Amino acid sequence: MLVYILIVILSYLLGNISSSYIISKYVFDSDIRTKGSKNPGTTNALRVFGFKVGLLTFLGDYFKGTIAVLIAYFMAGYFRVDIDLCRYLAALSVVIGHCWPVFLKFRGGKGVATTYGAMLAISPLSTLFAMLFFIILVTITRYVSVGSIFGVLLFPILMYIRADLLGVWFCILFFILVIYRHRENIKRLIRGEENKLKLSRK
User: Fold this and answer.
1) Which of 49, 58, 74 is nearest to 134 (CA)?
2) Of 92, 96, 154, 176, which has the fewest Cβ atoms less than 10 A away?
3) Distance from CA of residue 51 to its chain's centroid?
4) DSSP letter at 62?
5) Could you tell me the pTM of the whole model?
């Protein structure tokens, strides 16, 4: 039990590392949470600071999810506990840490990139399918929120196909988190007021 608790804590703290906040504070001497949509995520970083910062934000948020799961994997092997449970606990915890970081007064991002990164370390092929689906939807609709919601929705379906029942339940939790974090986007989509993706030239 102590191993599981330690994995949850470590993964949550890792999720607290906000790439966009660090870049905006130490490179641009500002706080991204006061600019644009005020969300410290990839989309807002793209819109406010341009492609390079958006890409760095995505990579940072993405791979902290991967790292959290890999750490849990090695810890599970070392302490001889349930590897699958450890990996999914780490994945969920790092996403929660990203969405509600204690060090940033619980004002975090929406968790999509971190979810993909965490799932990459659990099921690479499923993650590639989900990311491809995300890219197709965003390309067609120009709405990042649509790609985010339906891309993550694909995970529990893919886990069911893989006969990974534990993964199904955890991926349903990921989907619920994404829906909750995108609740305002969903309202704007319904009203036809959601902003389409436009890249800054910076």
Assistant:
1) 58
2) 176
3) 18
4) H
5) 0.92
